């Protein structure tokens, strides 16, 4: 199996939405009500919203594919002088454990290093055991607990950070 990671294009919007849907239900099905997941997907993965993210000069947006089929995606944005925020990183549940998330993260981190930042940060819902397990396995450190709103409902979220500078100094 060969994983290919490339910049996302408008032609990828439907595939990105399909991966998001399956990943959200698989990773968050026990933490969020199905109606909340449906509402979040409708809001956050509206075709116009996804297209705007892909076309934004401020957002790095990549897709991963195996045998030409999109099976994951990630997006990141420089939010502070010394920080890139990882907005999304999702892999289709049928492909979990195959290194696709790591390939996507590597590409996002390469982009972040090119931006000259010290760290990559992201937030993960406390009920997302899959996301938490992935980030901790690849070296992100959990910070403080905060709150995140998902279509009108507040949930506990953890802040995670990966220190790019420490990696470079090691």
From TrEMBL:
<keyword id="KW-0012">Acyltransferase</keyword>
<keyword id="KW-0808">Transferase</keyword>
<dbReference type="GO" id="GO:0016747">
    <property type="term" value="F:acyltransferase activity, transferring groups other than amino-acyl groups"/>
</dbReference>
<protein>
    <submittedName>
        <fullName>GNAT family acetyltransferase</fullName>
        <ecNumber>2.3.1.-</ecNumber>
    </submittedName>
</protein>
<dbReference type="InterPro" id="IPR050832">
    <property type="entry name" value="Bact_Acetyltransf"/>
</dbReference>
<dbReference type="InterPro" id="IPR016181">
    <property type="entry name" value="Acyl_CoA_acyltransferase"/>
</dbReference>
<dbReference type="Pfam" id="PF00583">
    <property type="entry name" value="Acetyltransf_1"/>
</dbReference>
<feature type="domain" description="N-acetyltransferase">
    <location>
        <begin position="3"/>
        <end position="165"/>
    </location>
</feature>
<dbReference type="InterPro" id="IPR000182">
    <property type="entry name" value="GNAT_dom"/>
</dbReference>
